[in-house]
Design brief:
By secondary structure, this protein is of the alpha+beta class. The protein has helices spanning 3-18, 29-44, 48-53, 62-76, and strands at residues 81-88, 99-101, 104-108, 112-122, 128-139, 142-145, 148-150.
Length: 152
């Protein structure tokens, strides 16, 4: 993935954070640790399928799912990049917005309680190349990355 592709990915990911409704609750620390460890392992092992499993796909179209799967594969297979992952509180000013894509109103498909910040640096870790923010919600006691879906 080129730096330009990463920039597009970052932009799309940030848009997802903006469309997310904010819920006033938090996942248990053990679940947060499990989620971050699973993301770290996905990148270490170059397994985008793990990120697919860590995503809520409720109401997501097959086309959107395929696009996300491709993005995940591009991200985990980056070469000469050092990744750092951290769960942070989402910006309350940047949530609760609805976006429209070709005539369809959409928002995050799960209530957002956290944001996964994925910082990537050059292979020496000396220069930060970017930070990607993924909206994260909780479903059935498990943290999952949110995706944009048609509004209910």
């Amino acid at each position: 993935m080129s730096p330009q592709s990463i920039q597009v990915t970052v932009t799309l990911s940030l848009l997802l954070v903006v469309v997310a409704p904010l819920a006033a609750r938090a996942a248990p620390p053990a679940e947060e640790a499990r989620f971050v460890a699973a993301v770290q392992k996905a990148f270490k092992d170059h397994k985008s399928a793990t990120l697919v499993e860590l995503t809520c796909w409720d109401r997501v179209s097959e086309k959107t799912k395929k696009e996300a799967e491709g993005m995940y594969a591009d991200l985990v297979n980056q070469k000469d990049v050092v990744w750092d992952f951290k769960l942070v509180d989402p910006d309350p000013k940047a949530v609760e917005k609805e976006r429209t894509e070709p005539g369809v109103a959409g928002r995050a498909n799960i209530a957002i309680i956290k944001q996964l910040d994925m910082k990537f640096s050059d292979k020496d870790g000396k220069r930060v190349l970017g930070i990607i923010g993924f909206a994260v919600g909780e479903k059935d006691g498990k943290l999952l990355m949110a995706r944009q879906a048609p509004a209910k």
